[in-house]
Amino acid sequence: MAARRATAVSLACLLAAGVIPPFPPRPASAAATGCAPEAAPLAHPPMALTAAHAPGMHGPGLHGPGMHGAGVHGSAGYTPGMRASAARTEARAFETHGSAARTRGSGPVVSEHWHGPVPRRPRSPRPEDVAKVMAELRERLAGVTPPSQIIVPTRVHLISRGAVRQVSDQAVQAQIDTLNAAYAGGFGGVDTGVRFRLDRISVKEHAAWFTDPIGHEKAMKSALHEGGAGTLNLYIAQLSELMLGFASYPYWYAGAPALDGVVIDWRTLPGGAMSDYNKGFTGVHEIGHWLGLFHTFENGCEEPGDGIDDTPREAKPTEACPQDKDTCVAHAGKDPMHNYMDYAHDRCMWEFTPGQATRMHEMWAAYRETPAVLYSLPIYDM
Ligand SMILES: [Zn+2]
Asked: How far apart are CA 265 and CA 246, in angstroms?
């Protein structure tokens, strides 16, 4: 098994990875500064970019939940086995116009890169942030019945470093299948009632976006984002060994609709090269944020935690695959270390709770299921 070395990273590397906010300007990517290894070399001949895979040219391979339609399967796959020392880090939301990133295992290193005009001091979500989100949610849900089933139309944007694709259509389909299995409770936990329908895979050749999707987030998303509040835009590019993905929260949508979506590292897809993080659960985790979930370790042992009753408090993120863990002994329940919204290795995370499922449906009703979204559902070719 590959050893991890992500717990000790230099300030320079954190800066380079965008974990500590340089605002402005943003620095080069971590990969470009030698802080993290470059992408895994492909052991097999990579897939060439063909006309069928050009941006916008790939037809809508329409998929219902659990269905695998024709038209989105390619031929090339992954090169598993790259040694990676990754930490699951991602942007998190707690205000309207910012996003934050945190590196697991390196302490409370939290940063923000702001889309709005006013830079703010980096900080973690505080109890009042969670309380504010909860209060607004309750307000918006007055008189509203959340849906029992949610089918999320999903647009996948593959960012390619060059004319050679890093990710096959087959790998994308495997990621969608993993999402649907995880959200159905197929690996453990509850069936959340959320499913993902792959409507389109498009490929964009752009080396800078591929290697630094954080620094180019606004340009990339502004150019590629499709659909409304209820459409999942899933961008697949290369982040770093320290940051596997980042997401926007539902209540950000109104303030920055074009920036809505989820960005994940291509090596985290099922069978990918990111050791310990290659079962596709980075996507599951980040999309959990997109659907309105906080981390299970939010606010540690302190009220209101993550704002969900059936996820026991935990003082800090879970690392790797511990046998057992109870970091908030004054509170009932051991740490929810197998929850998708914690930071365990992929092989040790397998569940959402009933409370998280309910929260996702509430968030959907409050922020994503607008009439415009409902009317746009049958439209696949925007
Ligand atoms: Zn997260």
From this structure: 9
